Predict the 3D structure of the following.
Amino acid sequence: MIPITAGFGVSARQHVDETDLQLLHALQLDPRAAWIDMGALLGIDPGTAARRWKRLEDDGTAWLTVAPGPRHARDGLVGAAVEVECEPSATDAIARALADQPSCLTVEQVSGRADLLVEVVAGSRAAVVELVQGRVRALPGVRATRTSLATALWREGASWRLDALSPDQQSRLSTGSRGAEGPQPPPRAAELAALLEALDGEVRMPLNRLAQRLGTSPLTARRRLERSVASEALRLRCDVAQEAVGHPVTLNSWYDVPPQHLEQIGPEVARTPTVRLCAGITGGEANLLVGHWLRSHHAAAAVEPTWPAGSPSCGRCSARWCCARSSAADVSSTGEPARRIGDSPQVPRSRPN
């Protein structure tokens, strides 16, 4: 299931301290790490670590999900950024309707030329076109749409880190979520589908129970999970409510980079700590989309990519938008910080037959 976040009816956030942030960073690195390992890493009792996580999960500050991994992008899934212009009175209703679409991963109300920026994923380019033309444009109040198809993905939300752990702590963490060592063949489609279904809603499920759901032994279940993660067919992730962890501002920038330098520049820009999205795109005046999570609006003025040595510093910024409300989908009009309140159906898990 895809988490839905919103400000509607959400109480003021509880205090998130440094130990909470370290715990969340550790879970980003290994969502299934044992509490005894977490406690040793953070210098707290394992029970305390577990209770802290339950509080953070219960109040919507953070959540664990399982989803198809990057291999699916290479094997057929197509991503796109869709700009939506709305009638002023219809923006909230349109955002809510889009948030209910399984293929819409995020819906952001933005300050640029469009009113909404929607990240979508579908089984093919034709499916993206059908989604935009058949569903988005059909919504009452939609004035216009512009679609940029993703051509490359160098960083996405699952790879963004809080940077709360020291390098030594990170090296000490048992990174079980990274799976088996070395290159791994992808699991069979039926095995992957079974893992996605079994772990959906309970990423930290004990191995014995996972084995029961899969109808196999605990050793085989562990090997299948490790192989699925290592081959990038499956991804376990810990997501966070951005305002609760001190990064309340989303900034999206579009750049026009000389095409011959895009493959060099994209991976370099993706290494910037504030970058949460870095993708090659086509279909408009820009070919590089960069999304940042920032601590304040004042930081937006100072954000510029660091172009690799030897490359032209002529990645012209064609547009820069701040996100007024963020989501999958924060579409409230209350101004409250986004938090998880529920789930929407999972995105397509494989290419349609």
About this structure: Confidence is low (pLDDT under 50) at residues 1-13, 175-179, 328-353. The longest helix spans residues 46-58.
